[in-house]
Specification:
By secondary structure, this protein is mainly α. The protein contains 7 helices and 3 strands, in the order αβααββαααα. The longest helix has 21 residues. Its cofactor is pyridoxal 5'-phosphate.
């Protein structure tokens, strides 16, 4: 979450959601991307991405995605997509495909650079607190190590 970078325990939320009928767990995984976290494997029913952000990386595509590994949910999503005509053009798909080839490299650099900045700020005398999930000082660092990367 913004701005405090609180992390949801997807497995715990999934257990609660799935203990009741007709409750789906939807995770917005835009900022972690599939490179850093795989919510479907943690119990999410649907994973949402704003592909415009990290996945595309060039700010030249406006696109999103909803993913599921449940056939019934997929059928309903596909019906809605078809009924509403919300499909990207072939050009947009090729632009996104181009960008996905470098996603791993870009995400590793983002993670590395963010951690370097976080470590620097943690030691700075004028900085009171740094909230970066990659730092051991983050209150949910263990959860991040468990469900991410």
């Amino acid at each position: 979450t913004n701005p405090l970078l609180r992390i949801a325990d997807i497995q715990a939320v999934s257990k609660v959601a799935h203990s009741k009928p007709n409750i789906l767990l939807v995770v917005d995984n835009t900022f972690l991307t599939c490179y850093n976290q795989k919510p479907l494997l943690l119990g999410a029913d649907i994973v949402m991405y704003s592909l415009t952000k990290y996945m595309n990386g060039h700010s030249d595509v406006i696109m999103g995605a909803a993913l599921t590994n449940d056939d019934e949910i997929e059928e309903k999503l596909r019906f809605l997509q078809n009924a509403m005509g919300i499909i990207p053009s072939p050009f947009e798909c090729s632009q996104l495909n181009r960008s996905l080839k470098t996603l791993a490299v870009r995400m590793r650099e983002h993670m590395k650079n963010g951690l370097i900045v976080g470590q620097f700020l943690e030691k700075h005398p004028l900085v009171e607190k740094v909230m970066h999930p990659g730092l051991p000082s983050h209150p949910q660092h263990d959860l991040v190590k468990k469900q991410c990367y």
